[in-house]
Design goal:
The protein is of the alpha/beta class. Helices cover 43% and strands 18% of the residues.
Length: 251
């Protein structure tokens, strides 16, 4: 029998073995799939979400070590969650929250402030709450968008809100070091959130992307999860934005 060494084929062990991954917003979509990929790479996984029932089901699916049901935008609940974790953690991914769309002229000042700051505020609160628990070399991973880079009537203030994320992440990476901070900017991803936003237009959008994207298919949660786990395992990556949209921004 020929050994792997003899054939030049390396046997790779689980890349996150012995590490703990926390997913804020891990009960569905990209968050759930990232938790699944992290478990497959040997990590202990902690997932959070607002819906206790959905969270329990998600935890059973991926074999999560621990769950917590709370609103991530509540700073006190977020701080308490991290304080209650029994041991150190390595990686935190934040997928909670969604973009704000709508006419700029129809928004009042409070709505504008919320739309512009909600993702940055959430990322900052997670960083503050998690920093004392995170091991050096771990990563805080936030979600952004490539789709909102294209200015259009439908995007409203979302384009400006997402544009603020890359410099925020770069600045936070300097302050949080040696913990790393990175941003995933996704285009359309076929998730339950996308389905809820598009409703009856979902299949039309899928077909459009299949025929126009350079990759010839729709980006799914597993694609984003694979990128997320790579960023977790590659300790040279920090302060950067990683696009994953199948080439959508170019077509």
């Amino acid at each position: 029998m020929t050994s792997p060494a003899a054939t030049g084929v390396a046997q790779r062990g689980p890349e996150l073995a012995g590490q703990t991954v926390v997913v804020i917003g891990g009960s569905s979509g990209i968050g759930l799939e990232t938790a699944r990929h992290a478990r497959a790479e040997g990590a202990d996984v902690v997932i959070t979400g607002r819906n206790p029932d959905g969270l329990r089901q998600a935890a059973q699916e991926v074999g999560a070590q621990r769950t917590a049901a709370f609103d991530a935008t509540d700073a006190a609940s977020l701080k308490r969650f991290f304080q209650d974790l029994p041991g150190p953690i390595d990686h935190v991914m934040v997928t909670a929250g969604g973009p704000t769309y709508g006419s700029l002229l129809e928004m009042d000042a409070a709505q504008v402030r919320e739309a512009m700051s909600d993702r940055i505020t959430l990322g900052l609160e997670v960083a503050r709450s998690a920093a004392g628990k995170m091991r050096p070399g771990g990563t805080l991973l936030l979600m952004g968008s490539t789709g909102a880079r294209r200015i259009g009537h439908g995007n409203g203030i979302a384009s400006a809100a997402f544009a603020a994320l890359p410099p925020f992440v770069a600045a936070l990476a300097l302050e949080l070091a040696p913990v790393r901070v990175n941003l995933i900017a996704a285009g359309f991803v076929d998730t339950p959130l996308s389905a809820s936003l598009l409703g009856g237009q979902l299949e039309e959008r899928r077909n459009e992307l299949r025929t126009t994207l350079p990759i010839g298919r729709v980006v799914g949660p597993a694609d984003v999860a694979a990128l997320a786990v790579h960023i977790m395992t590659n300790t040279a990556l920090t302060g950067a934005t990683y696009d994953i949209d199948g080439g959508e921004q170019f077509v």
